[in-house]
Backbone:
């Protein structure tokens, strides 16, 4: 423990986060000796049919060193509990809420009066990922100065806090602006000149029109353009170094400010070291203007995500970016040729590259929006001489076995995401380089692919979710020499029979596995019965001796519910991870007494045909966007 504490001393507190499983285990009566190393907590489970944990008692010894709380989807009773105990979190310095509404006004006002608020360095009540479509946001007022260096609030609250001199140390803010008048009021605040980082979302109007699950340019909200122009033409942002501007998603498009709003931002761009523009209907010309405005000698992080970019913007990147470490172009419509031209730029220190489309999650319900980088683009990445590249994301990007083979040969690559590319088979290569994390979810893989997995000395995390393995594949996985070194194995929505699950568990090979996902979706044609128990080998302590979390049973990912657990009767000697799982089922859950037969076929049966349709659609859409024929509004 002293050695671990010494090694972690330089880590940011937000990286020293206890997983949900630790908090849930603590609530079920199981603690761990490593709790003194924890600095951050996130109460949200993010799993179908499993509830968030309650707010822990701050006087518990496990909580004494916690400095950061992410409070999840709170409602009145939990926020009230936090307001009552906030002063007891003696080391608390950062608090983040999710999706607060004006129904929490009273509890939030009580929290604002606590002494804890004056000790905080970061407080996020509203984030730029949120919209104002369905609920009003609560107001936030302080009656005395606070030492906050970062805050996330509505514009009216930020104006009040700045004008009253209540945030003298503020250096970073995220804010939602709902009217042009608010934009002008915010821009008039002299304290903006002290900000080093700003995240801002303009939510001044709504449209909501969309073609039903078809890609489209998006909805330009003129009121957002107006507010953006008012703000950036008036605000003193002298010390700003990081800027994030984000719209909102609308089906397979986006909604928010357009070209006029981006034009208003351009004067600020040259001074930035970090710039992120996300989910805005702007297109190639505006994106090229942004890239041209960037100071190439200064920029370190550049994200241009979901902006309807095509190959037309590739040449804007010509030249050298000597300090650029992160480049995000996900959710756009680049092709292989565009990627080749774009990567003609000199990027000597690039560490993280995202060229993903939009996978969308469960292929039972969601559908992808592809960025057809393809094998040609993957080969271009592999041959671009990106010697410091550590993380590469190419989800829903049309990558096949040949492109994957080129990527697996990259020296130094540690994390690779090619999920949502139903390539049908893995390339026959002798090694997977230096990878630590590989995401192969929904890649159309079968038993033969598991039989040919190579030895990978560095791999610790593997996702094989939504693929098509039988019990034969599970037995091959059990014999894979790399399995004993994995920390995380995701077999979500698998098609393995009980004999294969028993073989995988009884092999006793997964010695270090910390998290195991064996859930299936209710629409899986190969799912097990709602009411049948899992093989006892899966639940045995000796099968997976290092587990912190196990996720079992049948879920309905569309409704976010659970139809079965695989454990109709809790074993008397159940392992702590199983007890924790069963203790945290949603309160409405009742174990079923009868089953419904599974569907006769699921997405796997028509995957090739559906994928071909998505490819054709993506190619046609990219051609139209490149020609300027956005075809929207109708």
Residues:
């Amino acid at each position: 423990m002293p050695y671990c504490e010494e090694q972690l001393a330089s880590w940011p507190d937000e990286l020293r986060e206890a997983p949900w499983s630790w908090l849930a285990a603590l609530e079920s009566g199981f603690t761990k000796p490593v709790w003194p190393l924890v600095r951050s907590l996130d109460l949200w489970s993010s799993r179908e049919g499993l509830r968030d944990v309650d707010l822990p008692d701050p006087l518990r010894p496990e909580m004494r060193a916690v400095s950061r709380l992410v409070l999840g989807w709170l409602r009145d009773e939990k926020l009230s509990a936090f307001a009552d105990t906030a002063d007891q979190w003696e080391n608390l310095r950062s608090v983040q809420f999710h999706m607060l509404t004006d129904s929490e006004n009273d509890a939030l006002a009580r929290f604002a009066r606590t002494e804890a608020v004056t000790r905080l360095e970061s407080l996020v009540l509203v984030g730029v990922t949120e919209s104002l479509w369905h609920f009003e946001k609560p107001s936030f007022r302080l009656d005395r100065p606070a030492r906050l260096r970062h805050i996330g609030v509505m514009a009216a609250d930020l104006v009040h806090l700045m004008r009253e001199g209540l945030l003298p140390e503020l250096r970073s803010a995220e804010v939602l602006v709902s009217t042009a008048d608010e934009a002008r009021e915010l821009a008039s605040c002299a304290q903006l000149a002290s900000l080093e980082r700003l995240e801002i979302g303009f939510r001044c109007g709504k449209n909501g029109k969309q073609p039903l699950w078809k890609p489209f340019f998006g909805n330009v909200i003129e009121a957002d353009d107006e507010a953006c122009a008012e703000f950036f033409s008036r605000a003193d942002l002298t010390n700003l170094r990081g800027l994030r501007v984000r719209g909102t998603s609308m089906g397979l498009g986006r909604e928010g400010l357009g070209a006029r709003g981006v034009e208003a931002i351009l004067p600020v761009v040259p001074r930035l070291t970090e710039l992120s523009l996300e989910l805005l209907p702007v297109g190639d010309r505006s994106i090229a203007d942004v890239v041209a405005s960037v100071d190439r000698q200064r920029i370190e992080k550049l994200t241009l995500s979901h902006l309807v970019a095509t190959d037309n913007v590739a040449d804007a990147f010509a030249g050298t970016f000597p300090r650029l470490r992160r480049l995000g172009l996900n959710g756009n419509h680049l092709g292989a040729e565009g990627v080749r031209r774009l990567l003609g730029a000199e990027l000597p220190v690039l560490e993280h590259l995202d060229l993903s489309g939009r996978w969308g999650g469960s292929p039972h319900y969601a559908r992808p929006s592809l960025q057809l980088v393809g094998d040609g683009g993957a080969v271009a990445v592999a041959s671009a001489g990106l010697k410091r590249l550590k993380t590469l994301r190419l989800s829903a990007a049309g990558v096949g076995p040949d492109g994957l083979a080129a990527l697996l040969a990259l020296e130094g690559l540690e994390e690779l995401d090619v999920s949502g590319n139903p390539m049908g088979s893995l390339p026959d290569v002798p090694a997977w380089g230096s990878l630590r994390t590989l995401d192969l979810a929904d890649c159309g893989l079968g038993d033969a692919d598991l039989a040919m997995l190579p030895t990978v000395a560095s791999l610790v995390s593997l996702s094989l979710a939504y693929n098509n393995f039988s019990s034969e594949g599970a037995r091959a996985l059990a014999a894979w020499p790399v399995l004993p070194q994995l920390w995380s194995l995701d077999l979500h929505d698998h098609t393995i029979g009980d004999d294969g699950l028993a073989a995988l568990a009884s092999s006793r090979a997964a010695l270090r596995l910390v998290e195991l996902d064996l859930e299936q979706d209710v629409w899986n044609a190969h799912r097990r019965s709602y009411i049948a128990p899992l093989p006892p080998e899966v639940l045995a302590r000796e099968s997976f001796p290092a587990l912190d979390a196990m996720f079992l049973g049948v879920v309905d990912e569309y409704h976010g519910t659970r139809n079965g657990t695989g454990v109709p009767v809790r074993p008397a000697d159940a392992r702590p991870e199983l007890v924790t799982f069963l203790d945290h089922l949603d309160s409405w859950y009742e174990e079923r007494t009868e089953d419904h037969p599974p569907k006769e076929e699921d997405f796997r049966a028509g995957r090739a045909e559906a994928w071909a349709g998505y490819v054709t659609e993506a190619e046609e859409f990219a051609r139209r966007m490149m020609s300027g024929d956005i075809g929207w509004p109708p």
About this structure: Residues 120 and 420 are 41 Å apart (CA to CA). The mean pLDDT is 95. The longest strand covers residues 172-177. Residues 607-627 form the longest helix (21 residues).
